[in-house]
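Budget justification aside, the reviewers requested a transparent look at the raw inputs and outputs of the sequence design task funded under Objective 1. We therefore reproduce one unedited record. The lines immediately below are the structure tokens for a 309-residue chain.
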């Protein structure tokens, strides 16, 4: 049995919290507004069945958690809240604590290691889709692969990372260790940058975007620009070329998620801030840093920003 803190009880955080608590661990929640989570029971429905659990404590004050010796802290806030979340938990990270970042986009690891030793910071590439039906209730809508967990620079003892991956896997959430987790994360960044903003702007499912020749052309250009940006920044990817990834994207990634709307679609509909800054916005910054402007990514970024409230 482990002591586990979930930072952010949104769509992804609720799934982790409920599954880990059901598996017999002590699970705590750290949120921005405790009043939204005055629920006696948290619930998860969807493709993995019905699950429910009562958490040990949900608080908005890190001081309430200072006497708990955490084994795992899972950060599942939106990417624009990463820095504040890390500041809130940095004093809760003790000798045996590992922090797993599960957010979308680029820059979360780079932000976390400003405050927490690198060997304690892991990436968890999440590629199951979940949405919040109401506070304390999430629905898992799709799963494309395991949650892949690893230390981007391989600074943590491999056996310890494997143990953490097994802890999550044994709850019923598909999970596995990845020695190349940074490359795996970039696979998801490519996927999200191509699909999320267009799906949100046009209110279309992933499959509809892939079937339409006009949106398909835009997505292809987004992907090609990202490969160019990564090459210029010496970022290593799992694929040798944009063309290789594009073939994989349409043949393997889209089919299992074709009926899925992006989280950005729900964010815009709800008037919430999106994660565009950590996706296409991050691509623009990385490109402009080395004198290259990825114009399609910048256009998509500007369109989403114009709709954010």
């Amino acid at each position: 049995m482990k002591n586990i803190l979930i930072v952010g009880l949104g769509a992804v955080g609720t799934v982790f919290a409920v599954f880990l608590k059901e598996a017999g661990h002590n699970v705590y929640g750290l949120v921005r507004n405790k009043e939204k989570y005055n629920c006696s029971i948290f619930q998860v429905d969807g493709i993995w069945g019905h699950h429910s659990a009562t958490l040990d404590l949900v608080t908005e004050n890190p001081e309430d958690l200072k006497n708990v010796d955490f084994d795992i802290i899972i950060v599942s806030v939106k990417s624009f809240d990463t820095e504040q979340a890390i500041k809130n938990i940095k004093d809760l990270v003790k000798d045996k604590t590992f922090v797993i970042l599960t957010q979308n986009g680029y820059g979360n690891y780079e932000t976390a290691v400003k405050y927490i030793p690198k060997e304690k910071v892991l990436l968890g590439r999440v590629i199951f889709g979940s949405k919040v039906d109401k506070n304390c209730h999430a629905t898992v809508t799709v799963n494309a692969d395991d949650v892949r967990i690893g230390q981007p620079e391989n600074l943590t003892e491999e056996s310890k990372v494997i143990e953490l991956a097994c802890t999550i896997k044994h709850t019923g959430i598909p999970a596995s260790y990845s020695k190349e987790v940074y490359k795996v994360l970039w696979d998801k960044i490519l996927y999200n940058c191509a699909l999320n903003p267009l799906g949100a702007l046009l209110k279309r499912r992933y499959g509809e975007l892939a079937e339409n020749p006009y949106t398909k052309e835009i997505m292809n250009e987004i992907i090609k620009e990202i490969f160019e940006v990564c090459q210029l920044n010496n970022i290593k990817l799992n694929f040798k070329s944009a063309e290789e990834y594009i073939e994989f994207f349409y043949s393997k990634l889209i089919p299992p998620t074709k009926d899925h709307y992006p989280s950005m679609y729900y964010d815009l509909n709800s008037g919430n801030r999106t994660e565009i800054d950590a996706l296409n916005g991050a691509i623009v910054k990385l490109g402009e840093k080395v004198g290259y402007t990825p114009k399609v990514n910048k256009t998509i970024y500007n369109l989403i920003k114009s709709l954010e409230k």
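The mean pLDDT is 94. The chain has two domains: 3-179, 183-307. Computational costs for records of this kind are itemized in the attached budget.
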